[in-house]
Specification:
Number of strands: 0
Helix content: over 70%
Radius of gyration: 25 Å
Structural class: mainly alpha
Mean pLDDT: 79
Distance between the termini: 99 Å
Low-confidence stretches: 1-26, 241-246
């Protein structure tokens, strides 16, 4: 006997009639999901990626003509010179990632040795930390408390300087022992042919109208533009004051802040951007300075993600090894500090920052020192 409901569409009609909104609820929800997609941000991301790859290829092509400039004019001939050069270079352009990419391009062109490239990248990170201190000065000019506003930038410089100083010796030892010599990805013939097909005509066109060396500064300008566009396509990641109370228990745990700093920086690919998220909250006293230290330590590791991508695009296995050694060395130092003497380390950093902000004289001494050190290293 056939069921009275079988082949009878009335139940479906009955449900629709009983709940008229159900028939339109699903399409409305789907429409809202599509409305949430920011097509402009997606296009900006694709454009920034296109420009990033173009910039790396332009810098790679132009760097070969700049070997005499690096070796003879700037006299970057040893790891100490390159450390100071990368440090000052980051000061000039107010960014570390383009300087790190430049170091890889110079290495690929033969202008820098493996160890000098490593220290130039290290210098770029030290110089990039100055950006957060500069943002702190802007807060001081707006009437904020000097000690509170400058603490974030000073902590960024001191934590980065102390961990990178120790990590530099670990990284140099890793490179000297060739511990990561067999660890490198292969770009593959397909990817190389696609890159040549897309960017080859652009590079050829520029070479017919400009000297080869000009492609490097053009590429440097394009890579700065690509990072700017990438920042604009990111979602708003500022922490609201109302959200601080919800995560107040978590921010007191060093490992949580360490992972948070690593995660946000991995997404934004910028230490200055990820730290600037906490700068307003620190200036208002919502985030304590000691909670920021592990955040900075985590951010200093994943900030090399874009440099790692640049090494892959260069197609130079040794360039990838250099960046990998940077990440591993900083990770080792940071994890050891968190597992052993973190309390003493954090107190030492805070005492030093307190000393710097205590008087104008101390602050002036600090500022002069962070400009003299890279200049002296460059002239050694």
């Amino acid at each position: 006997m056939q069921s009275p409901l079988q082949d009878d569409p009335s139940p479906v009609l009955y449900v629709a009639e009983a709940s008229p909104s159900l028939a339109v609820q699903l399409p409305t929800t789907e429409k809202r999901v599509w409305q949430r997609i920011r097509y402009k941000k997606i296009l900006l991301f694709l454009l920034s990626l296109f420009l990033f790859i173009l910039a790396i290829n332009l810098m790679k092509t132009g760097a070969r003509s700049m070997v005499p400039l690096i070796r003879d004019t700037f006299r970057v001939t040893n790891p100490l010179n390159s450390l100071g050069f990368g440090w000052l270079f980051a000061y000039v352009i107010m960014s570390g990632s383009p300087v790190a990419a430049s170091a890889l391009a110079f290495f690929d062109a033969g202008a820098l040795s493996q160890l000098s490239t490593f220290t130039m990248i290290t210098g770029s990170r030290l110089g990039a930390s100055f950006i957060v201190l500069f943002l702190g000065f802007l807060y001081v000019l707006r009437g904020r408390n000097r000690s509170t506003s400058l603490s974030m930038g000073l902590l960024s410089l001191t934590v980065t300087g102390s961990t990178y100083f120790v990590g530099m010796f670990i990284g140099l030892a890793l490179l000297y022992s060739d511990a990561f010599g067999n660890i490198h990805p292969s770009t593959g013939a397909t990817l190389e042919s696609v890159v040549d097909l897309m960017y080859g005509p652009i590079i050829t066109f520029l070479l017919t109208h400009l000297p080869r060396w000009a492609l490097f500064p053009i590429g440097l300008g394009i890579i700065l533009l690509s990072f700017n566009l990438f920042d604009r396509c990111l979602p708003e990641m500022s922490l609201k004051e109302s959200q601080v109370g919800q995560v107040s228990r978590l921010i007191y745990k060093p490992w949580v802040m360490f992972l948070l700093g690593a995660g946000i920086t991995m997404i934004s690919m910028s230490v200055s951007l990820s730290l600037s998220i906490l700068l307003p909250l620190s200036a208002r006293g919502y985030v304590r300075r000691e909670n920021v230290i592990p955040y900075i330590m985590g951010a200093n590791i994943t900030t090399f993600i874009d440099t790692l991508l640049a090494a892959v695009l260069l197609g130079n296995p040794q360039a990838f090894t250099i960046v990998l050694a940077e990440m591993v060395s900083i990770a080792v130092v940071s994890i050891i500090l968190l597992m052993t003497i973190y309390g003493w380390y954090a107190r030492s950093m805070l005492r030093f920052v307190g000393w710097v902000t205590e008087t104008n004289l101390h602050l002036a001494i600090f500022m002069i020192t962070i400009f003299l050190i890279p200049l002296v290293l460059l002239l050694v």
